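Self-study notes.
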Amino acid sequence: MIPKLSRYFLIILATVVLSQVMPAIYDNLFDVRINTPYVSFGAEKKVFFIYTREEGKGPAFTDSKGEKYTRNRYLDATPSENYFYHIKNGTMPDSINGVKVDARLLQRESFNQMTFPFEFSQPEYKLYPLLESAPEAELTWPKDFFRIDKRIEFIDAKTNHIDEEKSVTYTGLMKKEGFVFPATLVAGMPTVMKQWDDGWFLTDKEGSLFHLKMVKGEPYFVKISKPDNIKIKKMVCNSYSSREFYATLVSDDNRIYLLRSGDYKLLELPINDYNPDTQALQIAGSLFYKTVILNGEGSIKAYAIDRKYNKVAEYAQTWPVKADMAVGKVFTWLFPFSIEMQPASSHFVHFQVNRNHTGRWIYLNLLLLALSFLLIKRQGRKLSSNILDLIIVAATGIFGFIAVNIFANKEY
C-alpha cells in the first residue's frame, strides 16, 4: 500500500512540475515579439500620434488621420510634448495655441503616471510613515510608523513600543471627524524622495474618505465630501509640480476620478471602458491636455481631455495577440492547463492555475488515454490496477501521461 501511495504522490508532484515547466519552455521556444504602439496627443495639430518600431525598418510615425511623418517632422509638430528637444536646438516657439510658454511652465504642467493591473492585488505592509508636511528644510523620515485597526497606533521604529499619547490624540481627532475604524484603504507616498508631503488618504469601514497628515507636529484630519455611490478601491497619489490634483481614484465600477488639490473636489474623467484587471492605465499631462491611455493585450485606447475635463478626441487600435497566432493555437491543443508561480499580473510569487477554456486539448487527452490503454494491454497489466492512471491521463493530458510512465506502475 505504501509503495502505491508513494508512487501517486510522485505522479502528482511530477504533474504539477510538468504543468509549470513544459508551457514555459514552449513559450520561450516559440516566443513572438509584438511591437505595441506608443500613442500621444499633439496639442498643436489636435491629432493623436502613433509611434511604432518595425523590425528592419526603424521607427515609424503616423497620426490618427493616416498621415506619415519623419522623426524630425514629428518633433516639430509636437513642441509642447518634446520641449527639451526644441530648447536644446533653439527651435522652441514663443507661443503654442495662442498661449505664451516657456520651459519652466511646460515642465511644471507635464507628468506621466502609470497604474498596472498587479497594483490592485498586491499586499500592503500595514505600517505607514507619517511625515512632517511642513518641515523647516527637507523631508525626513519620522521615528515612528502608524498602523490602523480598532484605533490608530504609532509605533517607535527603534524600540517597537507604542506611543500612547500620540496614538490617543490622533484616534480622538479621527473619531471626532466621524472616522469609523478600521481603515479599508490607506493611500499615500511613503518616501522622502518627493518635493512635498500631502500625508495619507484613508477610507473607513463605511467607505467615507478622509485626509490625514501632520503639520508642524500637530494632527490634520478632515473628511472629504463625496457621493455615497462612489466606492473607492484604488488611489494613486502623486507629487507632480503642477499640484493640480492629490490623487487618481478608481471606483468599484471602474470609473476614474481625480481628487483636486485644495478643495478636494472629485473630477470624473469621461472614460467608461477601463478594466483594471486587464489594462494598464496611463495618464499623461501637458499644459493643454491630458491623455488617458488604456493598454490591454492586443489593443490600445487613447482619450484626449481638455483643461475642463471634457473629452475632445479618442483613438483605438488593435493587433493580433499570441493566442490568435499559430503558436498560440498549438498551445491550446497541447496543454489542458498551465501553472505559473509568478504570473504576469503580479510581482509576487504565488500558485496560479491557468485553465484552457477552448476545449481543444480534449482531443489530445483522448488520444493519450487510448495510447495508455494500449500500453497497459500490451504489457499484460491488469486494467483494474491501472484505473487511477487512466483517470490521471484523462484529466491532466500530456502532463499526467508523462508522469505515470516515468513512475511506472509495478503490480505486486
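Second protein, same conventions, sequence then structure:
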Amino acid sequence: MDGMPRASNEKESEIRGTMSKGNILVVDDDKNLLELVKMRLESADYEVTTAPREEDAVEAVKSQVFDLSALTCSLSIRMEFL
C-alpha cells in the first residue's frame, strides 16, 4: 500500500458503474457504417464521437482527448495539428 486512503469495494463498483470504458473517435465517410459502429460501441459502454470528414476528425482531436481512434485507411489526414 502507498499510504493513500482507498474507497470501499462498494464505492469503487458504484463509481465504475457510471463511467464509460473509454472515449473513441471513429472516422469514416460512410455515415451508415459510422452509425452502426457507434451503436455497437455505445452498447458496450464506450463514449463515441464520429466524424464523417477528416476536417471533422481534426477538430474533434483538437477539442478532446481520445483513448482510441479508428480511421478509414483511404483518408489522408494532415498531421500538422499534432
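Instructor comment on the second fold: The chain has a mean pLDDT of 78.
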